[in-house]
Amino acid sequence: QVQLVESGGDSVEAGGSLKLSCAASGVTFSSRNIGWYRRAPGKERDWVAKITMSGLTSYADSVRGRFTISRDNAKNTVYLEMNGLKPEDTAAYYCDELNRCTGTPSGSWGQGTQGTVYS
Predict the structure, then answer these.
(1) Residue spans of beta strands (DSSP E) within the chain
(2) What DSSP string runs through 20-41?
(3) CB neighbour list of residue 17: distance below 8 Å, 6 or more residues apart
(4) What's the rounded mean pLDDT across residues 9-34?
(5) What is the pLDDT of residue 25?
(6) Do 19 and 66 meet the contact criterion of CB atoms below 8 Å apart?
(7) What gap in Å lies between CA 62 and CA 70, rounded to an integer?
């Protein structure tokens, strides 16, 4: 099982940017599909973006055009560049391995990284 650690979260002004990182701990994930999820206060965890092992990407409607997911397999790291941040983007952000067939996350959520957007 791939162990992932999120980092890069911070408190930023509305309209600002953050770049989150998702790094593998002790294993490689170049052959894995990775997704970013977030949980806002009082809400369920929502899917944000996905990147396949071949680099194909997809996004939730709420972030498309503002967020960019990418990966650097040499560093065993997946990134989420977030631009034009809005207060509603405030959430704990998590990354997870996705099942190749179903696209379902493994559910082995880590501590995540907190992104807070203030007006």
Answers:
(1) 4-7, 11-13, 18-24, 33-39, 45-51, 57-59, 67-72, 77-82, 91-98, 113-118
(2) EEEEESSS--TTSEEEEEEE-T
(3) 81, 82, 83, 84, 85
(4) 91
(5) 80
(6) no
(7) 18
Q: How far is CA 48 from CA 67, 70, 87, 92, in A?
A: 9, 13, 16, 12
- Per-residue pLDDT at 1: 64
**106's tokens:** 């493994």
Distances (CA, A) of 63 to 24, 42, 85, 119: 24, 19, 9, 18
User: How far apart are the C-alpha atoms of 30 and 32, rounded to whole Å?
Assistant: 6
Distance CA 119, CA 12 (A): 9
| Residues 22-68: tens digit of each pLDDT | 998 867 778 899 999 999 999 999 999 999 999 999 999 999 999 99
